[in-house]
Amino acid sequence: MTTSTDTSIPTDAIVVGIDGSACAELALDWAAREASLEHRPLVLLHAVHPPSLGAMAYVESSGMEYGDLLARLESDGHALLRHAAQRVRAEHDVSEVYERVRMSDPRTALLEAAAGASALVVGTRGLGPIRQLLLGSVAMAAVKHAGCPVAVIRGAEQKNRDVGVMVGVAGDGHDATVLDFAFRVADARGLPVTLVHTFWDAVGQAETREVPADDPRHANQLAVLFEAAGPPSRRYPSVAVHHLLSRGFADVQLIASSRRAALLVLGHRRKPFLQELIYGSVAPRVVEHAHCSVAVVPVGDEPDA
Protein backbone atom coordinates (compact mmCIF):
# COMPACT_ATOMS: atom_id res chain seq x y z
CA MET A 1 0.00 0.00 0.00
CA THR A 2 1.25 3.48 -0.83
CA THR A 3 0.26 6.61 1.07
CA SER A 4 0.36 10.04 -0.55
CA THR A 5 0.20 13.35 1.29
CA ASP A 6 -0.02 15.89 -1.57
CA THR A 7 -3.16 17.96 -2.12
CA SER A 8 -4.84 16.53 -5.25
CA ILE A 9 -7.91 14.28 -5.27
CA PRO A 10 -7.52 11.36 -7.72
CA THR A 11 -10.34 10.84 -10.18
CA ASP A 12 -12.78 7.99 -9.46
CA ALA A 13 -11.57 7.56 -5.89
CA ILE A 14 -13.71 6.62 -2.91
CA VAL A 15 -13.68 9.69 -0.62
CA VAL A 16 -14.52 9.28 3.08
CA GLY A 17 -14.98 12.01 5.67
CA ILE A 18 -12.92 11.49 8.84
CA ASP A 19 -13.56 13.48 12.02
CA GLY A 20 -12.48 11.11 14.80
CA SER A 21 -16.03 10.08 15.74
CA ALA A 22 -17.33 6.52 16.06
CA CYS A 23 -19.67 7.02 13.10
CA ALA A 24 -16.73 8.14 10.95
CA GLU A 25 -14.91 4.94 11.89
CA LEU A 26 -17.85 2.92 10.53
CA ALA A 27 -17.81 5.02 7.35
CA LEU A 28 -14.06 4.40 7.02
CA ASP A 29 -14.54 0.63 7.21
CA TRP A 30 -17.28 0.70 4.56
CA ALA A 31 -15.28 2.98 2.25
CA ALA A 32 -12.06 0.97 2.64
CA ARG A 33 -13.83 -2.27 1.85
CA GLU A 34 -15.48 -0.74 -1.20
CA ALA A 35 -12.16 0.68 -2.42
CA SER A 36 -10.57 -2.74 -1.97
CA LEU A 37 -13.34 -4.62 -3.75
CA GLU A 38 -13.50 -2.16 -6.66
CA HIS A 39 -9.71 -1.61 -6.81
CA ARG A 40 -10.07 2.15 -6.44
CA PRO A 41 -7.98 4.75 -4.61
CA LEU A 42 -9.19 5.74 -1.14
CA VAL A 43 -9.11 9.38 -0.01
CA LEU A 44 -9.28 10.13 3.72
CA LEU A 45 -10.53 13.70 4.13
CA HIS A 46 -10.53 15.74 7.33
CA ALA A 47 -11.84 19.32 7.29
CA VAL A 48 -11.47 21.96 9.98
CA HIS A 49 -13.63 25.06 9.91
CA PRO A 50 -11.32 28.03 10.67
CA PRO A 51 -12.29 29.81 13.91
CA SER A 52 -14.68 32.74 13.62
CA LEU A 53 -13.65 36.34 14.16
CA GLY A 54 -15.05 36.17 17.70
CA ALA A 55 -13.07 33.05 18.46
CA MET A 56 -10.00 34.62 16.90
CA ALA A 57 -10.24 37.59 19.27
CA TYR A 58 -10.55 35.21 22.23
CA VAL A 59 -7.57 33.16 21.07
CA GLU A 60 -5.38 36.22 20.68
CA SER A 61 -6.45 37.54 24.10
CA SER A 62 -5.25 34.29 25.66
CA GLY A 63 -1.77 34.81 24.28
CA MET A 64 -1.88 32.33 21.40
CA GLU A 65 -1.27 33.57 17.89
CA TYR A 66 -4.07 32.84 15.42
CA GLY A 67 -1.59 31.36 12.97
CA ASP A 68 -0.28 29.02 15.66
CA LEU A 69 -3.81 27.83 16.37
CA LEU A 70 -4.43 27.07 12.70
CA ALA A 71 -1.15 25.20 12.51
CA ARG A 72 -2.09 23.16 15.57
CA LEU A 73 -5.51 22.29 14.13
CA GLU A 74 -3.93 21.26 10.84
CA SER A 75 -1.30 19.17 12.63
CA ASP A 76 -3.98 17.41 14.67
CA GLY A 77 -5.88 16.69 11.47
CA HIS A 78 -2.84 15.08 9.86
CA ALA A 79 -2.28 12.96 12.98
CA LEU A 80 -5.91 11.80 12.84
CA LEU A 81 -5.56 10.80 9.20
CA ARG A 82 -2.27 9.00 9.80
CA HIS A 83 -3.99 6.87 12.43
CA ALA A 84 -6.89 6.16 10.05
CA ALA A 85 -4.49 5.22 7.24
CA GLN A 86 -2.66 2.84 9.56
CA ARG A 87 -5.93 1.11 10.40
CA VAL A 88 -6.81 0.81 6.71
CA ARG A 89 -3.36 -0.66 6.06
CA ALA A 90 -3.80 -3.24 8.82
CA GLU A 91 -7.38 -4.29 8.06
CA HIS A 92 -8.02 -3.76 4.34
CA ASP A 93 -6.29 -4.50 1.05
CA VAL A 94 -6.26 -1.01 -0.46
CA SER A 95 -3.35 -0.19 -2.76
CA GLU A 96 -3.62 3.62 -2.74
CA VAL A 97 -4.53 5.77 0.26
CA TYR A 98 -4.47 9.56 0.15
CA GLU A 99 -4.64 11.79 3.22
CA ARG A 100 -6.16 15.24 2.78
CA VAL A 101 -6.64 18.00 5.36
CA ARG A 102 -8.72 21.04 4.40
CA MET A 103 -9.06 24.25 6.41
CA SER A 104 -12.65 24.98 5.43
CA ASP A 105 -16.25 24.17 6.26
CA PRO A 106 -16.53 20.34 6.20
CA ARG A 107 -19.55 20.50 3.91
CA THR A 108 -17.67 22.61 1.37
CA ALA A 109 -14.57 20.42 1.60
CA LEU A 110 -16.50 17.19 1.05
CA LEU A 111 -18.52 18.57 -1.86
CA GLU A 112 -15.37 19.87 -3.56
CA ALA A 113 -13.55 16.56 -3.05
CA ALA A 114 -16.54 14.62 -4.38
CA ALA A 115 -16.58 16.51 -7.70
CA GLY A 116 -14.61 13.80 -9.53
CA ALA A 117 -15.08 10.94 -7.06
CA SER A 118 -16.62 7.55 -7.65
CA ALA A 119 -18.45 7.84 -4.32
CA LEU A 120 -18.46 9.96 -1.16
CA VAL A 121 -18.86 8.11 2.14
CA VAL A 122 -19.89 9.79 5.39
CA GLY A 123 -21.09 8.68 8.81
CA THR A 124 -24.19 9.95 10.54
CA ARG A 125 -24.84 10.60 14.18
CA GLY A 126 -28.60 10.25 13.62
CA LEU A 127 -29.43 13.61 15.16
CA GLY A 128 -33.14 13.47 14.34
CA PRO A 129 -35.19 16.09 12.46
CA ILE A 130 -35.30 18.83 15.13
CA ARG A 131 -31.61 18.88 16.04
CA GLN A 132 -30.75 18.46 12.37
CA LEU A 133 -32.80 21.55 11.53
CA LEU A 134 -31.08 23.57 14.26
CA LEU A 135 -27.53 22.31 13.86
CA GLY A 136 -27.31 21.42 10.19
CA SER A 137 -25.82 18.14 8.97
CA VAL A 138 -22.70 17.42 6.96
CA ALA A 139 -24.24 14.15 5.77
CA MET A 140 -27.46 15.84 4.65
CA ALA A 141 -25.58 18.58 2.81
CA ALA A 142 -23.68 15.88 0.92
CA VAL A 143 -26.88 13.99 0.10
CA LYS A 144 -28.59 17.09 -1.26
CA HIS A 145 -25.74 18.66 -3.19
CA ALA A 146 -22.93 16.20 -4.06
CA GLY A 147 -22.31 15.44 -7.72
CA CYS A 148 -21.47 11.77 -7.07
CA PRO A 149 -23.17 8.93 -5.14
CA VAL A 150 -23.16 9.54 -1.37
CA ALA A 151 -23.17 6.58 1.02
CA VAL A 152 -24.42 7.51 4.50
CA ILE A 153 -23.29 4.72 6.81
CA ARG A 154 -25.53 3.90 9.74
CA GLY A 155 -24.21 1.18 12.04
CA ALA A 156 -21.91 -1.75 11.31
CA GLU A 157 -22.46 -3.53 8.00
CA GLN A 158 -25.10 -6.25 8.22
CA LYS A 159 -24.22 -9.28 6.11
CA ASN A 160 -27.36 -11.27 6.87
CA ARG A 161 -29.94 -8.84 5.51
CA ASP A 162 -32.21 -10.95 3.31
CA VAL A 163 -32.74 -8.51 0.43
CA GLY A 164 -29.09 -7.43 0.14
CA VAL A 165 -28.91 -4.13 -1.73
CA MET A 166 -32.36 -2.58 -2.05
CA VAL A 167 -32.82 0.04 -4.77
CA GLY A 168 -35.75 2.36 -5.32
CA VAL A 169 -36.99 2.40 -8.93
CA ALA A 170 -38.90 5.56 -9.85
CA GLY A 171 -39.75 4.57 -13.42
CA ASP A 172 -39.31 8.18 -14.56
CA GLY A 173 -36.42 7.73 -16.96
CA HIS A 174 -33.73 8.58 -14.40
CA ASP A 175 -33.08 5.14 -12.91
CA ALA A 176 -30.08 4.00 -14.98
CA THR A 177 -27.31 5.58 -12.90
CA VAL A 178 -29.04 4.58 -9.65
CA LEU A 179 -29.32 0.96 -10.72
CA ASP A 180 -25.75 0.89 -12.01
CA PHE A 181 -24.42 2.01 -8.62
CA ALA A 182 -26.61 -0.50 -6.75
CA PHE A 183 -25.55 -3.42 -8.96
CA ARG A 184 -21.90 -2.34 -8.81
CA VAL A 185 -21.89 -2.45 -5.01
CA ALA A 186 -23.88 -5.69 -4.89
CA ASP A 187 -21.57 -7.37 -7.39
CA ALA A 188 -18.46 -6.37 -5.45
CA ARG A 189 -19.91 -7.62 -2.15
CA GLY A 190 -21.63 -10.76 -3.43
CA LEU A 191 -25.11 -9.54 -2.46
CA PRO A 192 -28.46 -9.83 -4.25
CA VAL A 193 -30.35 -6.75 -5.44
CA THR A 194 -34.02 -6.12 -4.64
CA LEU A 195 -35.71 -3.57 -6.91
CA VAL A 196 -38.57 -1.67 -5.27
CA HIS A 197 -41.18 0.32 -7.19
CA THR A 198 -44.01 2.06 -5.36
CA PHE A 199 -47.00 3.48 -7.18
CA TRP A 200 -49.54 5.81 -5.62
CA ASP A 201 -52.68 4.16 -4.29
CA ALA A 202 -54.74 5.01 -1.23
CA VAL A 203 -53.99 2.52 1.53
CA GLY A 204 -55.30 2.20 5.07
CA GLN A 205 -53.00 2.03 8.05
CA ALA A 206 -53.56 -1.72 8.50
CA GLU A 207 -53.54 -2.62 4.78
CA THR A 208 -50.69 -4.48 3.16
CA ARG A 209 -48.76 -2.32 0.74
CA GLU A 210 -46.85 -5.05 -1.09
CA VAL A 211 -48.40 -6.33 -4.33
CA PRO A 212 -48.08 -10.02 -5.38
CA ALA A 213 -45.94 -10.49 -8.47
CA ASP A 214 -48.73 -12.42 -10.20
CA ASP A 215 -51.43 -9.78 -9.65
CA PRO A 216 -52.74 -9.04 -13.20
CA ARG A 217 -54.28 -5.73 -12.13
CA HIS A 218 -50.82 -4.19 -11.83
CA ALA A 219 -49.05 -5.72 -14.82
CA ASN A 220 -47.95 -2.31 -16.11
CA GLN A 221 -46.38 -1.39 -12.79
CA LEU A 222 -44.62 -4.76 -12.55
CA ALA A 223 -43.26 -4.18 -16.05
CA VAL A 224 -41.45 -1.08 -14.72
CA LEU A 225 -39.38 -3.33 -12.45
CA PHE A 226 -38.57 -5.95 -15.08
CA GLU A 227 -37.61 -3.35 -17.68
CA ALA A 228 -35.41 -1.51 -15.18
CA ALA A 229 -33.58 -4.70 -14.20
CA GLY A 230 -32.67 -5.67 -17.77
CA PRO A 231 -29.59 -3.54 -18.62
CA PRO A 232 -27.78 -3.80 -15.24
CA SER A 233 -28.50 -7.54 -15.06
CA ARG A 234 -26.71 -7.99 -18.38
CA ARG A 235 -23.71 -6.00 -17.11
CA TYR A 236 -23.63 -7.85 -13.78
CA PRO A 237 -24.92 -11.35 -14.60
CA SER A 238 -23.77 -12.86 -11.28
CA VAL A 239 -26.06 -10.58 -9.22
CA ALA A 240 -29.31 -12.24 -8.15
CA VAL A 241 -32.32 -9.95 -8.71
CA HIS A 242 -35.61 -9.79 -6.81
CA HIS A 243 -38.62 -7.49 -7.30
CA LEU A 244 -40.91 -5.78 -4.83
CA LEU A 245 -43.97 -3.82 -5.99
CA SER A 246 -45.91 -1.79 -3.47
CA ARG A 247 -48.72 0.76 -3.15
CA GLY A 248 -48.75 4.05 -1.26
CA PHE A 249 -45.89 6.46 -0.57
CA ALA A 250 -42.40 5.59 -1.81
CA ASP A 251 -40.59 6.90 1.26
CA VAL A 252 -42.84 4.94 3.65
CA GLN A 253 -42.21 1.69 1.77
CA LEU A 254 -38.45 2.25 1.48
CA ILE A 255 -38.07 3.10 5.16
CA ALA A 256 -40.11 0.06 6.23
CA SER A 257 -38.24 -2.29 3.88
CA SER A 258 -34.84 -0.95 4.94
CA ARG A 259 -35.05 -3.15 8.05
CA ARG A 260 -34.28 -6.11 5.78
CA ALA A 261 -31.53 -4.49 3.68
CA ALA A 262 -27.77 -4.20 3.97
CA LEU A 263 -27.84 -1.01 1.88
CA LEU A 264 -30.65 1.08 0.43
CA VAL A 265 -29.93 2.95 -2.83
CA LEU A 266 -32.14 5.66 -4.32
CA GLY A 267 -31.89 8.58 -6.68
CA HIS A 268 -32.19 12.26 -5.89
CA ARG A 269 -32.96 15.17 -8.21
CA ARG A 270 -31.46 18.25 -6.64
CA LYS A 271 -33.99 21.04 -6.14
CA PRO A 272 -33.55 24.81 -6.13
CA PHE A 273 -33.28 26.02 -2.53
CA LEU A 274 -36.81 27.41 -2.24
CA GLN A 275 -38.41 24.25 -3.65
CA GLU A 276 -36.32 22.12 -1.28
CA LEU A 277 -37.44 24.26 1.64
CA ILE A 278 -41.15 24.08 0.76
CA TYR A 279 -41.60 20.64 -0.78
CA GLY A 280 -38.72 18.61 0.62
CA SER A 281 -37.56 15.45 -1.11
CA VAL A 282 -37.87 11.69 -0.70
CA ALA A 283 -34.12 11.03 -0.42
CA PRO A 284 -33.40 13.23 2.64
CA ARG A 285 -36.43 11.82 4.46
CA VAL A 286 -35.32 8.26 3.79
CA VAL A 287 -31.74 9.01 4.87
CA GLU A 288 -33.07 10.47 8.11
CA HIS A 289 -35.31 7.53 9.02
CA ALA A 290 -33.91 4.41 7.31
CA HIS A 291 -32.82 1.47 9.44
CA CYS A 292 -29.75 0.66 7.33
CA SER A 293 -27.05 2.54 5.46
CA VAL A 294 -28.32 4.57 2.50
CA ALA A 295 -26.64 5.54 -0.77
CA VAL A 296 -28.09 8.50 -2.65
CA VAL A 297 -27.24 8.86 -6.34
CA PRO A 298 -27.69 12.24 -8.06
CA VAL A 299 -29.80 12.04 -11.22
CA GLY A 300 -29.76 15.69 -12.28
CA ASP A 301 -31.28 18.94 -11.12
CA GLU A 302 -34.90 20.06 -11.16
CA PRO A 303 -35.42 23.37 -12.99
CA ASP A 304 -36.36 26.52 -11.15
CA ALA A 305 -40.12 26.99 -10.87
UniProtKB/TrEMBL annotation:
It holds the Pfam family Usp. Residues 13-154, 165-298 form the UspA domain. CDD domains: USP_At3g01520-like. SUPFAM superfamilies: Adenine nucleotide alpha hydrolases-like. It comes from the Bacteria. Belongs to the universal stress protein A family. This is Universal stress protein.
